[in-house]
Design a protein that fits this description.
about 260 residues; alpha/beta; TIM Barrel; eight-stranded parallel beta barrel; 8 strands; about 45% helix; binds 2-phosphoglycolic acid
Length: about 260
């Protein structure tokens, strides 16, 4: 078996769950456990309203903070939106292009690209999500879709800017369904379409250094099988990140 080249990372995408009070309670449960797992990078992505409270709680810890979205403009008359600078005041990471944003909020590949560029300019590290729908998968278009999401999503980025990226491969049919991809299948998509595409328009070296996470129904009982795959560097966890014990178990599996 080959050697793991990148630091494992487990990110929790809380989606539209947890009030400030609930977020605070969850972080207090997670903190002492995650602190002990120093070989894995833990990233918590609470809703915007809880970023500040969570930031304060984890300030002295090894845990990192991410947001779930941003708007690409710096400031202005954009009622209800959050700028990259506002996010960067509190968080280090930002999830961009999650399939729920693509499906419900009009985040096209071009929008995703604007957000990725804006995030990087503000000093944030984007976690770019890509993945095919069930229909795209069944019609044999996974490669085409994922390659397009990568190449348009990362358009006009310099090689230097790409170094700070993280990618999450999240097949849409596996998200929140309890029907995860097979670890081998996910690893193959990452190798054949994600790393190859990045190598193609950046470099082999950059493609090898970017962490690629798998997301979609990752649970304590299947996490290790994904982390055993050499090109899967961790997980973006939705549902199971809302329970301290499950998230800790997944993180332990990555260690
Ligand atoms: P899930 O969500 O773990 O609940 O399937 C993953 C995600 O949407 O990031």
């Amino acid at each position: 078996m080959g050697e793991r080249k990148r630091i494992p990372c487990v990110a929790g995408n809380w989606k539209m769950h947890n009030t400030v009070a609930e977020s605070t309670a969850l972080v207090k449960e997670l903190l002492p456990e995650l602190e002990g797992i120093s070989s894995v990078k833990s990233i918590l992505c609470p809703p915007f309203t809880a970023l500040n409270s969570v930031a304060k709680l984890i300030r002295e810890s090894t845990i990192h903070l991410g947001a779930q979205n941003l708007y690409w403009e710096g400031q202005g008359a954009f009622t209800g939106e959050i700028s990259p600078q506002m996010v960067a005041e509190l968080a280090e990471y930002v999830i961009i292009g999650h399939s729920e944003r693509r499906a419900y909020f009009g985040d096209t590949d071009d929008v995703v690209n604007k957000k990725v560029q804006a995030a990087i300019s503000a000093g944030l590290q984007p976690i770019l999500c890509v993945g095919e729908t069930l229909e795209e998968n069944e019609s044999g278009r996974t490669g085409e879709v994922v390659k397009r999401q990568i190449s348009v999503g990362l358009m006009d980025l310099s090689k230097e800017q790409m170094r700070g990226l993280m990618i999450a491969y999240e097949p849409v049919w596996a998200i929140g369904t309890g029907k995860a991809a097979t670890p081998e299948g996910a690893n193959q998509v990452i190798l054949d379409f994600i790393r190859k595409e990045i190598a193609h328009f950046a470099s082999e070296e950059i493609s090898e250094m970017i962490p690629v996470l798998y997301g979609g129904s990752v649970k304590p009982d299947n996490a290790k099988d994904f982390f055993d795959q050499l090109d899967i560097d961790g997980a973006l966890v939705g549902g199971a990140s809302l329970k301290a014990e499950a998230f800790v178990q997944i993180t332990k599996a990555a260690a």
